[in-house]
Amino acid sequence: MTDIMKGMLPLPKLLAFKHAITKPFNNNGFAIPLPMATESGSLAIRIPLILPLALLVFIVLCSIPATKPYMKFAYNCFIKPHAKDVEGGVMMGQQASLEGFYKGQADVYDLTRGRLLRGRETMLRLVSGEVLAKRVASHSSEKKVWIDVGGGTGWNIEQMSKHLSMPITQFFDRIYLVDFSPSLCAIARERFDSLGFTNVEVVCADAAQWTDTSVPDGSVELITFSYSLSMIPPYLSVIEKANRLLSADGLIALADFYTGTSSSLPYTHPSRSTPGHHVSWLARTFWRLWFEADNVHLEPGRRAYLEHVFGTVKVLNGRNRGLGGIPYWVWVGCKRERGYGNIGRVDEIATESPYLRPKGLVEHDASSTTAIVHTKAYDAAIVNLAAGLPLPSFYYQSHLWRIPYEQEKEKHTQFDTYIYAFTWEDPREDLNVLKVREDDVIVCITSGGDNALAYALGAKKPKRIHCVDLNPCQNHLVELKLAAFTVCGYEEFWRLFGEGWHVDFRGLLLKRLAPHLSAPALEFWVRNAGSFAKVGGLYDSGHSGVAIKAARWLLRIFGLGGAVREMCQTKTLEEQRRVWKERIRPVLLSGWVNKVLYANPVFLWKALGVPINQWKMILAEQTMFEYVANTFDPVIESTLLRDDNYFYLLCLTGRFTKECHPHYLDEESHEKLGQPGALDMFRLHTDYIGDVLRTLTPGTVTKAVLMDHADWFEEGGDRAEIRGELSVLRRAMKVGGEVLFRSAAMQPWYVEEYERAGFRCRPVEVRSKGRCIDRTNMYASTWLAVLEDKEENAIPSLRLGVGMCEDR
């Protein structure tokens, strides 16, 4: 019922077990004569001598003030027999067991639990952030009720008071700490008296039986379980009771030990693919047996039932590495029904439904000729509801930026991080070519999100921006940027994405950013919080960070650190060219670097995201050395790194500067996108771009920015993949819609496929030796394709075959 240290069986139990095993084989108590023992039996004699020696060490440690609390804890946990009843049977069963365990250590409980009960602080930060964000969004100052089930000494309530924006006595009308141990409740009362928390009531009672007429059903804003659900025998009734008490917009949160497997859950269960959810057979068997000795139950049914009854808002799985890898989880939930209203809404905004309106899905006119399309997420949600299963956590997001996706699919799990921490393509050229208007619906590759943010900040704000990426981590990165726009001031935002670091990123993440992130994005950033641990850390992360760090490492090895700083700080192109030609170019464009890096397809893929088909396209027109030289040389010749070329400035220095950075990092841009509702245009899809296009309502897309996406297709064969994708692209676009794409080839082979699909293509820029076509100059050509023909009969060979864009 309360936070307890369970991790080792009490010593008497261990000794009794050992005695039972060894007794048949010897007559010397715990002395075991092993085969290698001497005739004098010295080995058998030494073993029992360990016991008095250990006792002596224990006594010595108990006399040292600094270790005395921990020795007291160890005695009560591992040596002292647990009582079955107390004071002549006044307390029996569960309460007697708890009191017998805690009475002798209640005064040192908080001091000795910090390292064991991992996740408590994380839970409190998440909950405080969610509650604060909810009240801000609703513009409500109404004080409500919090019930802390198994709150023990009141540590949770005191810590929560440190995370709120006002005194806890003003934030909650009433707080109930419900615990079954009289000794811990006594400590809690003393704590609250000293703190002056007059709105806290300590209730020493069984949580399953406790009632209070002043707490009617549906009136509680917050219910928390801190390492207590695993100790409640009637957990089913307690979970049901919590569901009755929780208000329609309330939250329930938990931190606890657990064991479980992904295979034990239905495929549509929201926790199935949560990283770290699966516990190996050996670990889960060991920890369940270990904890059950002290009536702490880690069977997966408790977690499964809690997640079945409530909707999952956030969930994190962890391992306490300092104490043998004990599995624990942190979870925030809400009333399950809260997500039902989002099913139709998410489907509308993800498909550009012609019936889109602020609230729900309107009735479809049967006489209408407009096709109705649904996302795979909508179909999965309907299946869940029909089967009585909970909805995925996506339906309980604060914002509907992130479109639900099937996390467990191998096409997503193959990615453990993002490839690009920033976008290589130059959005200035995109905006010059596309001329974005207010009624534009844009589909673009997500990448680092810098390009999509640039479109949102154009002279005219587009109606919608659909960002698409198969790698979920790229969308996690964009979600982080959108959340930061929502809650961070400009200077803090600049530190995150201008300098690539934050002094307390984890704290910022859990309390302020988390309410604005989807559950998968939050889990990813908790796991990768170290990316912001140092200046430039963000841009040294991801697979592209490998290439960036390798280049800087190489330059430092050759003593060129000063030359790099000089080139990045010089105010004239003449000086920049001189430093490049005389000092840096001979290293970066040396023959051996070319062989080790640029001509190595493994490095190009792992570090730069260059697929094998694109590599072949380059080699069909020139050598890799020529391609790299034709990339770098014109950039240095024509663009000043210090003031205008933030792409290469970032690569060489690891950070942006206030003089040179992407447009979204301007203070004016932050003010614009930080306004309420300014980011509602974004939709983040995690899937193949063909599958996303297939679920967009026909004729709704006006612009598509596909980067070098088509370079990934294979040129040979029947070209079914590229033709299938172009068919759904043509179907989703309006006549006159524009597609901007780039290629590593000067004359990409698939231009003819675009033209067969009804697009008129023209090259916007084609790179030649010594000529820079944009600030990155990374591609050999940029193309614009305009849709001229949407008649299906005009191009029968391009009709989408069954399953053409289904999951592969």
Automatic annotation (TrEMBL):
Keywords: Membrane, Transmembrane, Transmembrane helix. Gene3D superfamilies: Vaccinia Virus protein VP39 (3.40.50.150). This is Methyltransferase domain-containing protein. Residues 148-250 form the Methyltransferase domain. It comes from the Eukaryota. InterPro entries: DUF3419, Methyltransf_25, SAM-dependent_MTases_sf. Pfam families: DUF3419, Methyltransf_25. The lineage of its organism: Eukaryota, Fungi, Dikarya, Ascomycota, Taphrinomycotina. CDD domains: AdoMet_MTases (cd02440). The chain crosses the membrane at residues 43-64.
